[in-house]
Amino acid sequence: MNSVEPVVKFLQENELVVATAESCTAGLVASMLADVAGCGAVLEGGYIVYSETAKHDYLGVSFATMDTYGLTSEAVARELVSGLAGRCNANYLIAITGTAESDDALCGVVCIARGLKVNGCLRVISETKKFAGERNEVRSNAAHYVLESIPDTYQTLINQES
């Protein structure tokens, strides 16, 4: 069984529809969901926002936020989620930005934000993780992590005070 199948089932059971904003994973999260039959009920769509301009133009991330915190930051990931929230009908939002390959301490560092629309309010959580491996291993591991953690992050968001 595909490791994403239980996640799709969880999304279906909880009436969750996903939209993604992906930078370093470049659409892998949405693609992995699309690999599962029946995903059309739980996947609205996604944005690939690799450049600063794309993050700003497509999802409204502030250039000031990117300049202040850097592209690999929870602040940028959180703004990506906010941008998604205003541009789609999905109720579970995922944003990923990070550095899959570099010669510095940011190599493998990925910032993830998730949002949940609850009664017209957006609840957001974020985290920073470091993934080991070569460029595409980092990207794949980050995408798998994000998908497989949906049940836990959903519970955290549901229990979060508005």
Give the helices and strands, then pairings.
Elements: H1 5-13, E1 18-22, H2 28-34, E2 43-48, H3 52-59, H4 63-69, H5 74-87, E3 92-98, E4 109-118, E5 121-130, H6 135-148, H7 150-159
Parallel strand pairs: 1-2, 1-3
Antiparallel strand pairs: 3-4, 4-5
Helix pairs in contact: 2-6
- Written as H for each helix and E for each strand, in order along the chain, the element string is HEHEHHHEEEHH
pLDDT under 50 segments (min length 5)?
none
The CATH homologous superfamily corresponds to: CinA-like
Q: Compute the separation of the termini in Å.
A: 37 Å
Per the CATH scheme, the topology name is Maf protein
The CATH class is identified as Alpha Beta
Rg measurement, Å: 15 Å
Q: Going across the major beta sheet, what is the strand order?
A: 2-1-3-4-5
Outline:
The protein is α/β, with parallel strands linked by helices. Helix content is 43%, strand content 23%. The protein has helices at 5-13, 28-34, 52-59, 63-69, 74-87, 135-148, 150-159; strands at 18-22, 43-48, 92-98, 109-118, 121-130.
Notes on the structure:
Strands 2-1-3-4-5 form a 5-stranded mixed beta sheet, sandwiched between helices. By secondary structure, the protein is α/β, with parallel strands linked by helices. The radius of gyration is 15 Å and the shape is globular. It starts with a helix and ends with a helix. A hairpin with a 2-residue loop joins strand 4 and strand 5. It contains 7 helices and 5 strands. The chain has a single domain, classed as CinA-like (Maf protein, Alpha-Beta Complex), CATH 3.90.950.20. The model has no long low-confidence stretch (mean pLDDT 95). Helix content is 43%, strand content 23%. The longest helix has 14 residues.
